[in-house]
Every structure is written in C-alpha cells, then in structure tokens.
Design goal:
single chain, 18 helices, 502 residues, alpha/beta, LRR_dom_sf
C-alpha cells in the first residue's frame, strides 16, 4: 500500500467523495446514495487503516435513528412487522458501547420530507429511554451538529431533548402537521435551547408558538440565522448581535411591524413573507416601524414576498413606499417580485437606484400582472443600469411600446446581465426593442415574463418577448463578428439588415 494511504487526512479527502450529506454540491439520488453506502461499507472491510475513516464518512449523516439501534445485538430487540423496533431484554453497558461506537460518528440528522419519515424511525419510546439511561450525558448522538426535523411521533416528543447536544449548530424544525408537532412536551424542550445547545448558529422554528420562539432564542449568543413564523398579536423581545439572515413569516406585514417594538435584531439579510393583502401605504408604515429594529445599518439584502393580487391602484408601490429602504446605501440585493410597481415612473426608479450604488440584484414587480399601464419607460431601465454598474440580475416592469433605438441607451452598457425579467411589460414593435436591449445588454441571452397568475394577453406578450430574445441573440452575434462596439448608428443599420436576412 502506498504510504500516502496511511495518512488519515488523505483518506478523509478521498472518502469524502462518497459524501452523503445531500447538500447542493452532493445531491445524491436514492440509487446513488445506496451505491455510495455500499462502497463505504466495503472500504471499512478492506483494511484496518481504512476502517475508522470510512466509518466516519458512512455514518456522518442519517435520515433517522433506526440504523443506530439495528446495530445493537439482535437478541436485544425485535421487529413485530409494523416497522417498529421493540426492546426484548434489559440494556447492558456492553450494548451501550456498541451503540456509542456508531452514534458518536453521526453529525447530521436529516429526515426525508418527501416520504414524511420520522426522525426517530420506528423505535419504541421505551427502547430509547433504556439506551439513554446508560449514556453519560443523556444524549443519543453526542456529537450531532445539524438536525432537520419535519416529523416526530407524539409519544417521542420528550425524547427530542436527547438530540440537543452542546455541539449542535443548526436546528431546522419544519413540521408537516403543525397541530400535532407543537405539543406541550415539544414546546417545553425547544424553549430550553439556550441551556441544551448554546452554540447554535442557525435556528428555523417553523410555525412555533410565539412564546416558544421567544424563549428558544434566549441565551443563544452565537446566532447567525433565524427563521420564525409570527402568528399572534402578542409582542415579545428578541435581541441579538448582527445576524447573517433573519427570515420572518407573518399574516400581514403590519402585524410584524407592530410586534417588533422590543426587537433589536440587526442583520445583513432580511426576508419578509406575509399572507394577506395590504395597501402600499400599509407596507410603507410597516417598513418605518421596522427601522432601527430589523432594518439597521449594514443591511445588504432585502426580500419581501406576499403582495396583494388586487388590481387597485392603492396596492401599487410608489416612491414613498421605498423611502424607508433608500437610506441603506450598502444594499446589494432587493427583491419585491410580487408587488405592483405601475406607479413608478422614470424619475422615481432613478431616485431609488441612485440610493443603492452597490446593487447587484434588483427585482421589482416581475411576478405581478396588472391592468394598469406601467409608467416606467425604457429610459428608466437605462437609468437603473447607469446608476448601478454592478448589477448582475435585473427584473423591472416598463412600457416597451415606444422605444427609439437611436435615442435610447446613451452609451450605457452592462456585460454582467444575461437574464432580464420584464414581467407584464407591454410591447408592440419587437425589432426596435431588440436593437435597444442588445445595445445596453450585449450579453443578454434570456428574457422572462411574469408567471401564469392572470390572463392579460400573457401568451401574446410572451411570444413577442421570445421574439425579442431571439433577435437580441442574433444582433449580439452580428455585433461581435462585425466588431461594432462604438458606432451605434452603424450597428443599428447592420443589425436590422442581418435580422431581415435571418
């Protein structure tokens, strides 16, 4: 054997190619996952040098705890046939040593939401308690780092405590059956997170009662990411240092604005989601309530989703709606795709864009359809590009019915943007629009209209924008071949000629 293969760090690097974490970088399908596990199991038996490292990788992540319990001697348990594991005899220290040998290697528990698997598998509650009695710190998996839980049997809610170890840094509770999940036992356990797992950095408490959320976040000084759903009108206190991400869901944005009176939660990324329609004036008031509570200096990303589908002009955002956000010059991402932005004209969007010079991602109203004609024109799009030179993603609704290629653009050129969202932007003459867009977005490859929420002649508009997208591709190709980068009038003539030939 090569000496390099005797170095644990080298083996760890090699065996990590069989990683079963299920992250974006390693999205194994079920057959792939099974093959990977079989390969790692085989490596455990190749030689003693491979065994420990291969076992660490093999057991790093589990879908539930049942595989740990099936490693125990078979005379200790039996399976009645209904998918459960039932205790047969008293548990001994020898049994615990076998269990601990594998349990100490587990770092991630990630149940399967698609198949609604229980995080404890089919283990009988008495079986779990019998094992925990022998555990030194009453922990089933002492070195656990991440827990993703959507299902947990009612009789095992109190056993959740045995998973909350001191090294836990990521807790994601996303219950599928809300009323069954947040029992008194579960709420009591999660309310004591600060005592059980003080090093937590990421906490997602899906649909947790407000009081549970308030108590759970107390004493967690290392928090970097919080996700909560706020349902009741009762205010509560949350104070943290600067977070990386704060995600809040509530029935209305106004309700959330009223709840933050005692909050001091500065963050770099703020995601707000609400479920019921609110007017633009109500949105503006709510944003002002959030100022210096969750809208604080250093904010870099702002996302808000849940705008009304009502076509009334009262629901359309104006320049005043954006005023509470315009003081954050460090913003890099702003996403409000569901809102109606028909009231924003070229001057308004210009003022907004100039207040965010570092902007890299902007989406306004691209998933909303309205019968109201947008006031923003092609010139507003040009103003945004000139004010935010770092833009990489752009989505705006504008009136594309009157575009003059020879007068539009003013030398503005962004080579970062490859996809443009236009929402329900009205359009008539596609050649003029295509020429103008290709001049300011020479790397554009795709144009997206709004999603299928309403009619409003969507199919006809979509067809015209597809024609624009195709023409832009041809124009850009001609432009590259002909080397027409500076003489715009020559470029227009050449592009139109080539378009007709094609």
């Amino acid at each position: 054997m090569h000496p390099c293969l005797l170095i644990p760090e080298v083996l760890q690097q090699i065996f990590s190619n069989f990683d079963l974490s299920g992250t974006e970088q390693n999205c194994f399908t079920r057959p792939d996952r099974r093959v990977a596990r079989h390969s790692l199991a085989a490596l455990c038996r190749v030689c003693r040098s491979f065994k420990d490292v291969a076992l660490d990788v093999l057991w790093v992540e589990l879908l539930n705890l049942q595989p740990l319990f099936t490693r125990l001697p078979q005379d200790l348990w039996h399976a009645p046939g209904d998918g459960t594991l039932v205790l047969r005899r008293p548990v001994t220290m020898r049994d615990w040593s076998v269990f601990e040998r594998y349990a100490s290697r587990v770092r991630v528990l990630r149940d399967d939401p698609e198949f609604q698997t229980d995080i404890f598998g089919g283990i009988d509650a008495n079986f779990i308690h019998a094992i925990v009695i022998l555990a030194p710190k009453a922990l089933l998996v002492p070195n656990i780092r991440e827990i993703y839980c959507g299902e947990c049997r009612y009789d095992l809610h109190s056993c959740m405590r045995y998973l909350l170890g001191p090294d836990l840094v990521h807790l994601n509770l996303r219950p599928l059956a809300i009323n069954k999940f947040w029992s008194d036992d579960m709420s009591s356990v999660i309310s004591c997170l600060g005592r059980h797992s003080p090093r937590l950095k990421v906490v997602h408490l899906g649909h947790a009662p407000d009081q549970v959320g308030e108590l759970a976040l107390c004493g967690l000084s290392h928090l970097q990411e919080i996700s909560l759903l706020l349902g009741s009108p009762r205010t509560f206190q949350v104070r943290t240092s600067t977070l990386a991400t704060l995600s809040i869901r509530s029935p209305t944005l106004t309700l959330f604005g009223n709840l933050v009176q005692h909050w001091v939660v500065p963050c770099r990324r703020l995601d707000l989601f609400y479920f019921f329609p609110e007017t633009a004036l109500a949105v503006e008031r709510a944003l002002r309530e959030l100022d210096n509570r969750v809208l604080c200096d250093g904010l870099e990303e702002f996302r808000c989703d849940g705008a009304a589908r009502d076509d009334s002009i009262a629901y359309a955002l104006s320049l005043h709606t954006f005023t509470p956000l315009m003081r954050f010059s460090s913003l890099k991402i702003v996403e409000l795709p569901q809102f109606c932005t028909s009231l924003l004209d070229d001057d308004a969007i210009g003022s907004i864009a100039k207040s965010w010079p570092l902007l890299e991602h902007l989406e306004l109203g691209t998933n909303h359809s309205s019968k109201n004609q947008p006031r923003m024109t092609f010139q507003g799009l040009v103003t945004v590009l000139s004010s935010c030179p770092s833009l990489r993603v752009l989505g705006l609704v504008f009136d594309a019915t009157k575009v003059d290629p020879e007068k539009s653009g003013a030398g503005v050129c962004n080579t970062n943007i490859t996809t443009l969202g236009v929402g329900f932007s009205p359009i008539e003459q596609t050649p003029e629009v295509a020429i103008a867009l290709s001049a300011i977005l020479p790397c554009l490859t795709e144009i997206k209209v709004e999603k299928r929420y309403t009619g409003l002649n969507r199919e006809a508009r979509a067809a015209k924008w597809r024609e624009v997208s195709k023409s832009v591709g041809v124009y850009n190709l001609v432009r590259q071949r002909e080397g027409l980068h500076h003489d715009f009038s020559t470029w227009c003539h050449t592009a139109e000629t080539k378009r007709r030939v094609c």
